[in-house]
Amino acid sequence: MKYVPIPVALLEVGKPLPVDVVSATGQLLLRKGQPIVSEQHREKLHAFNASTTASDAQAWQRAYERMVHELLRSGMDVQDIARAPMPSEIRETDYVVGRQFNGGWLDLQEVLRGILYQGGLAINPMQRLADIQKKAMSLAHADADDSLFCLFQALADESLGYCATHALLCAVMCELTAAKLGVDAVQRHSLVAAALTMNIGMAREQDSMVRQGSAITEWQRKLIADHSARGAEMLAGLGVDDADQLAIVRWHHAPDDAQADARNLVARRLLAMADSFVARTAARKTRASQSAVKAVKTMVLNAQGDALGVGSAMAQTVGFYPPGSYVQLVNGEVAVSVKRGARANMPWVISIVDKDGIPTIKYQPKDTSDPSLAIAAPVNFEKIKVVVNLERVRRARERIPG
């Protein structure tokens, strides 16, 4: 039987364990329901490489992810969540294999967040990361506009956490742009895997900094500077042996560094641009979000030489007003972008507030290439007080020609 190591450092002394704990060779160390009685007992478990069955490990990881989701929803500080031990209860539904991969983007976000939060202590992460990547790419290829819409909308929801949404949105942007540039499938696979895991070296701290009401500290500044190398080392320790993925993670903040392999240069540039773009469009406690159109222009203007083509391709792929972002029309209405148009600056939109400031009842798709419905200006996420209904958006989008 295959046994999976458990995160001994995250087990609470005195609390019953919800699984049988065995050594790496299968020797029973603790029965389900028994507790760790002391720190010395914990050290002994660590020495024996405490493990459990693969099914119990996956269910326990699912219970952890559910716990983190509930704590975030309750408004608990991310640093307090980071100190939370593994849960002492596993529900029957946590054992349903693959359940979390049958849903949509928010289900993937919840699972990925749990893995990123645990970092090097994540339980059985390799297969789960592979399943997340497979499902994410399936959703992206099935409907790119819907994928961008869901993720840009999620980016503005603080209760969901930031790190996993950031990773998924970067992954989709990189995949779509890499395909447009003709990057081969093997390299694209490594790029997407890197996008999903690039911030594993500081995931919990990343969420904490987003909510932080003061400037980052020197310690946080160093963490940001070191997290790329730390993340690559952490991933290698978890069993990642894809040299391209590790290189892209390691150099995603310095894509043109001379020490890096030229073979994955385009992939590194793509991830660096997507990473910066998403960070700019996400609000912080200390600053407002930047409009997508401004972030796109910054991305292109900052690119030089060969990188300019990469930036331009990403701008064309995502659009100046990507699905899920907000705009004001020349007629005074406020609308949400729902589908990329024939030109990057002319998406299809749905008005959500009329010219008198009244929320609209009927979701009607509008083509901003029509001069009377042209976009006058972008609108930041935090200025929107109307809740957008995803299912109504999807039904309305079905009426868009083509």
Give an overview of the whole structure.
The protein is 49% helix and 9% strand. It has a 5-stranded antiparallel beta sheet with strand order 8-7-6-5-9. The protein has a two-stranded antiparallel sheet with strand order 1-4. A hairpin with a 4-residue loop joins strand 5 (326-329) and strand 6. It is α+β, with helices and mostly antiparallel strands and 402 residues long. The protein has helices at 39-47, 54-73, 78-82, 105-118, 125-142, 144-155, 163-181, 185-197, 203-211, 218-238, 243-250, 265-281, 292-302, 307-318, 390-397; strands at 3-5, 21-22, 28-30, 51-53, 326-329, 334-339, 348-353, 365-367, 375-379. The mean pLDDT is 91.
Provide a quick synopsis of the model.
By secondary structure, the protein is of the alpha+beta class. It has three domains: 53 residues, no CATH class; 221 residues, Hypothetical protein af1432 (Orthogonal Bundle); 72 residues, no CATH class. 49% of the residues lie in helices and 9% in strands.
Topology summary:
Elements: E1 3-5, E2 21-22, E3 28-30, H1 39-47, E4 51-53, H2 54-73, H3 78-82, H4 105-118, H5 125-142, H6 144-155, H7 163-181, H8 185-197, H9 203-211, H10 218-238, H11 243-250, H12 265-281, H13 292-302, H14 307-318, E5 326-329, E6 334-339, E7 348-353, E8 365-367, E9 375-379, H15 390-397
Antiparallel strand pairs: 1-4, 2-3, 5-6, 5-9, 6-7, 7-8
Helix pairs in contact: 2-4, 4-5, 4-7, 5-6, 5-7, 6-7, 7-8, 7-12, 7-14, 8-11, 8-12, 10-11, 12-13, 12-14, 13-14
